Known about the structure:
Number of helices: 1
Helix content: under 10%
Largest sheet: 8 strands, mixed, barrel
Low-confidence stretches: 4-74
Number of strands: 18
Radius of gyration: 19 Å
Shape: globular
Order of helices and strands: EEEEEEEEEEEEEEEEEHE
Distance between the termini: 17 Å
Structural class: mainly beta
Strand order of the largest sheet: 5-6-7-17-16-15-10-18
Amino acid sequence: MAPDACSxxxxxxxxxxxxxxxxxxxxxxxxxxxxxxxxxGGSGAPREHGRxxxxxxxxxxxxxxxxSDRGHSSCTAKAVPPLGAGTRADQLITVEAAGVGTxxxxxxxxxxxxxxxxxxxxxxxxxxxxNGFSSHHREGDGTTPVGTYRLGATVYGDxxxxxxxxxxxxxxxxxxxxxxxxxREYNTFQHVACGQPPPFGGDSEALWTETQYYxxxxxxxxxxxxxxxxxxxxxxxxxSTGVPTTGCVSIHLPDxxxxxxxxxxxxxxxxxxGPAPASQGP
Length: 282
């Protein structure tokens, strides 16, 4: 899923950019957009204004990122995921599948370059939920939620830090992810004394035991602040075992290490997940 593009509109000192992602899952249509401004005397970096009413399209053109890879000399303005007022994302991970129901996907890394996104790496092969993407993800349904989300600053892993520059928690006995929809700590990391049963149930994961999946994991901040019961939990980017996941995004271990060495904790990166536009219909 390449970030959408649109040409500059209006005054030459004001660039308005809209549309981040557009997904269709069955009858549901999911649209994300944002507006940014580049004004005279500034650094040239877009200012994000959060979620705004849908702008007039005018003569804006839509294009992919073809021809605007890293190092390209010219680049049209690119849309940036809406992460809320006052929040800036300089790094973007995109996860795209050919259709809604397939678990086979591709992952790419993008870096903000002024008003543009420049591709840093990928596409890499990825696997998502066994039932593909869903805009109505529920706990245990085997789908990966469609949308754009922040990534958690803390990375967790059963192996030593491969080079991530932010907080890294080496998993130990008693480290859990609470996936019990009835728990007050639903969809959060919890440590319980080693050897003691946790006070939560459901399909909560004993993270330190899942060494194949979690040599390292990046938390996708889906269904947080607050967590809605049964809306889904434990969505991570982690190592692939060669089979579809229960809802996470998995990639080959060398690619996961490369992602973590690239990833910066501040400002928080974003991840945009969904089916390719060609699979969504008109």
